[in-house]
Amino acid sequence: MKLKIFSAKSILLHIIIILCFFTTALFLKAQENTSAQAIDKEYTKLIKEATTKPEFLSPLTDYLPQTEGIPTPKDVLGYIAGAPGKLTYYDDIIAYLNSLAEASPHVQVVPIGKTSERREMVIVVVTSESNMEKLSENKKLIAKLADPRIVKTGKEADALVSRIIPSYLLTCNLHSPESGSAEAAMEMAYRLAVDDNPIVKTIRENLVVLIVPSVEPDGHDKHTDWYYKYNQDITDYKKISHVPFWGKYDYHDNNRDMITMSQPEMQNIADVFYEWLPVVVQDNHESVPYLFFSSANGPSSFLPIMDSERNLIAWWEVTQMNAYGMPGVHTHDFGNTSWSPNFMASIASNHNATFHFYETFGNAIANTMEREVSGKRLEKAWYRPIPPYKKVMWSLRNNLNYQITGNLLAEYVVASHKEFFLKNFWKRGFESFTVGKDEPPYAYIIPDKQKDRVDTAFLVNVLLKQKIEVHRAKSEIKVKEGKFPPNSYVVRLDQPYANFVKILLEIQKYPEDALNAYDDCGWTLGLNMGVETVEIKDKAIFDVLVAPVNQPVEAAGEIYGGEAAGAYIINNGTVNNLLTARIRLKGFKVLASEEPFKVKNRDFDAGSLIIPVAGASLGLHKAVESISFGLGLEAYSSKKLPEVKTHDLELPRIAIYHTWSSTQDDGWVRFAFDQLEIPFSMIHKDHIRDGELNNKYDVIVFSNARGRIGADIVNGIDPAHRGPLGFVRSDKFKHLGTPDSCEDITGGMGIKGVYNLQKFVEEGGLLIALQNSIRVPIEYGMIRGIRYYEPSSKFYNPGSLLKSEVVNSKHPAVYGYDKEIAILRRHSGPLLKVPEEMEKYVVVRYAKEGEVCLSGIVKNDNELNGKAAIIDVPSGQGHILLFTFNPFWRDTNHNAYMFVFNSILNFNDLDTGLKH
User: Fold this and answer.
1) Residue 689 contacts by C-beta under 8 Å, 6 or more apart in sequence?
2) What tens digit of pLDDT does each residue of 228-246 get?
3) Which residues contact residue 601 at a Cβ distance below 8 angstroms, ignoring those fewer than 6 apart?
4) Statement: the pTM of the whole predicted model exceeds 0.85
């Protein structure tokens, strides 16, 4: 990956550009609020009363304009946006926005799709009346501009740019406790629609502003219910309690879903982007004092002009808000660098637009309270000219004043220089296309007929979701890199999103001397999914006859050999659908081979499914046909049962355990199981404490759980902090209680729960502990001899793909896997010290010698060399399977799923692996 790291010359160039825009600031200062427009005196008075210091207002927010017949938020809700003690339910936000749209020709509310819980997401379109009439034509023009194969020269681009009104997408309330932006969205839409301030008029005339008032409406309503139930009287920030679930699956990780777009909320935002192609996508968050504007502060995979634009917008906002005298406004200093393309706003940077995000000081609730700032954030710096105060009474309205001021300034700089931003948008697509056409690599090939055709199709569909062009070869491909069969997928780089193709498919190499990464550093899709992808540097690939792939693809299932006389065989091949297939074949006997074998020169992996014909009902062939075609599996008919050692695959009863203090990681486990239609029970501390686990479950998957020690996980939320806390639905609080409920989420399973887990295992159950949760069975003596330890402070692995190797190829957990595999592991979570006499239980380990990192970065990897990645420890009649990584990570590492699914399929026969 080519990195763009700022040099002194590039920084100087940025400063020169910023100085050019500073003259605009002087011009703006003379213009502000010169309009004779009527003011809503009551609303204006309430704004000032809710603002705790005069300097927390700006000339853009210290009044509210009034236009007869057009309702303000107060007219509909009964209170101003940002009123003390008021959070607004999603339906009420939409009701206000609809009333605004009905009254103003400058506003439209457009549905964009349903959430996981079937709420309707919307965008609010705000622009001038004349622009409204040209929206359809405008979309066609910018779609044309986005393709450098249509608009081929700068002159052609200039001619088109002069006819386009660019759009600016503002997304709010992605994270549910960061609710200030959802409140601000209402007033923002109103101000943009009616204000005659020259700044706002410029935005309205020269920009189409798109506002998503809440990207996570499900979580917004849960958080709002929780506020009114538990936090309405809280004035001490440290005593705020937090709702345990937001959305159905992904909690805070809803801002890490822009690679696979697994959740409907992200798919809806992507669809908005593809329809409107905004030149900027801005995502408003809440954390640091008082307002941080994102800028480029380290290595990135973006195109250079994009980093420059991010800096330009951020510095314009800092400069102008400093001129207003607003403290705590800064850029640059948000800690680590953002490297991964998985953030929601990166839909822009991945597709040649610019992304921008805010972190505004937020209280999480609507109450005004004293907040304290400490450390370096109090220091004056070149990127923080006016520091925040050490102590401050902070209100929700303060938050809105900062957000709305920054939003309007950012939109103004784009609106007043729209040709500049549109031309750069075209240039990035042109540069991406030109480099892909003229410089190697020229393409990636995804060969046909791979071992796991299901995940091959999944990977291709990820590319298609990203609007990346994919083709299939009409005949055999012959290039310097080798021969590839007909129907292989070809991802050529002579396309507008070539840069993003490389980001997704190449090997990531995070620079050793860069700032620490904010998130994952290695995500190479082929490695993550166990799919072969081949980088092609032979330009002859452009001469290969191909056909475009225009629809999502499916793995082609098939039965070879017709109706079987002896058995049907489905190769393991680490295809995740195997567990689904076994469940669908619940009426039939199914065996698993314990070793690799051959039938008529066809190779089958250990763990392959063998379905005997003898004794089966007459519907067997149709059942096998159904799973083959329905799940993309290849079944082979055999005249007789293969001569290989086998064991029965009994149907398991599965539970997925989550703690109430961290529901995010179990969400990705549940999502994987739900996608594959694997039935399970969702259980929590009360179910574990109740006992009798063997009567209900055969397998318990203990999801990754947060906690520095096992006791944190076992004891759960401290009831002394704010207990009891019931997460249950009621007539008054109808949004609580999903996707799980509990009369009191404080406390944990306790010692009684640990005892019940140990009893469950000893009586024959399988406990699968993922990553950090391994602390519990080790720390509480469920496993003897093995210890966990924390890597040293010199060890660094923020999220990388690691070279690993199968130690015990006979163990069912690794059926179908090759000797060497890529495992995605993040730094969080302990490693294992395994005594010599227990090494026999290690199933998979990280590479014993050489460099461990396959993609990303690992420092001091000697601390990882040879350490256990998966270990199966027998206990009584059952087993405890420990993973020192999380095999269910954000819907990306599909190649790791079968470690768990193999173990579940063979839950009664794990001893077969340990005998060897």
Assistant:
1) 749, 750, 752, 753, 756
2) 999 999 999 999 999 999 9
3) none
4) yes
